[in-house]
Amino acid sequence: MQTIRGREQRTALILLLPALLMLLFVFGYPIARAFWLSLFTQNLATKLQPVFSGFDNYARMAGDGRFWQSFWTTSIFTTVTVFLELILGMGVALILNRRFFGRGVVRTIAILPWALPTALIGLAWTWIFNDQFGVVNDILRRLHLIQADINWLGEPTLAMIAVIVADIWKTTPFISILLLASLQSISSDLYEAHAIDGATPWQSFRQITLPLLIPQILIATLFRFAQAFGVFDLIAVMTGGGPGGATEVVSLYIYSTIMRYLDFGYGAALVVSTFMLLIFMVAIALFFLNKSRK
Q1: How many CA within 13 A on the CB side of residue 86?
Q2: CB proximity list for 155: less than 8 A, separation 6 or greater
Q3: The dihedral sign for the CA sequence 173, 211, 208, 80
Q4: Maximum CA pair distance of the chain?
Q5: Are 269 and 57 in contact (CB under 8 A)?
Q6: Distance of CA 178 to the CA centre of its chain
Q7: Burial classification of residue 34, based on how many CB atoms lie within 10 Å of its CB (0-12 exposed, 13-18 middle, 19 or more buried)
């Protein structure tokens, strides 16, 4: 038995080896290259020539207030969007899981926001929140809720709310799709037996649906956390990180450091540090995911 099992394991490893090598090349080499570059100072002061500086770039990052501000902004954006998307995605998935006329058409329409390019979505929401021609201000004026136009993308707090709303509209369908697939795998016999015992729909959701969906919820949270933490194009199109850096996330700061200021060594240090922090958070999520499965 051990010989057969060992042979099967070796065969599986041989079959997986090409894919593992491809992943190592695609993901491992860029990270290793970025780490190596982060040990050098390479900017306009050195005439773009790499000068070995050890961990000076990481020490500089520790005292970089702009980086920590962008990290805080990214954390707020990620936390709020993922939390609200989970709630809304769950609601949409529960609705789409029910039988009603035209369910297939509704499911197709519900997935459209996620299927559209993010840059296009950002441009559309920029016009929606435009202070002079935007739909939001027009609706608020018609409802007599405002007297003067609101500059949604020109005020720090309102700009953050605007990009959060746009991201929620864009990616909530992704959460609902993942949860809908899990809902369809739950046997209806469980709900029927629970109803016979006198359980209400809320009790069925709390005692059957939610416990069985916890692994899928954690997976969806993991995917969305990684995506939201690395958001770039949506905010770049809508606000460009403004006003006054109020919506500048880590990815935008790294982009400015490398492409605008040509500080390649420090930009590489920012990339490596952000990547390692993201890996640490993902590892925590995987720990809780494995724990929930057990």
Answers
A1: 19
A2: 243
A3: negative
A4: 80
A5: yes
A6: 14
A7: middle
Go through 217-243 and write b for each residue having 16 or more CB atoms within 10 A of its CB, e for each that does not: bbbbbbbbbeebbebeebbbbbbebbe
Residues linked to residue 40 through DSSP beta bridges, in sequence order: 52
What Rg value do the Cα atoms of the chain yield, rounded? 24
The residue written with tokens 């194009």 in the block is 233
Tokens for 122, please give them.
């950002």
Map tokens 């060992």 to a residue.
Answer: 6
Which has the closest alpha carbon to 213: 171, 184, 174, 170?
184
Tokens standing for residue 205: 């959701």
For residue 209, the one-letter residue type is T
Q: For the chain, what's the residue count?
A: 294
3-state secondary structure of 147: coil
Amino acid symbol at 291: K
Segment 24-82, tens digit of pLDDT: 888 888 888 999 999 999 998 888 898 999 899 999 998 999 999 999 999 999 999 99
Cα gap 238→78, rounded to integer Å: 17
Residue 153 identity (one-letter amino acid): L
Q: Which secondary structure element, helix H or strand E, spans residue 290, and what is its range?
A: helix 264-293
Q: Per DSSP, what are the bridge partners of residue 52?
A: 40
Kindly give the parts of the chain with pLDDT less than 50.
Answer: 1
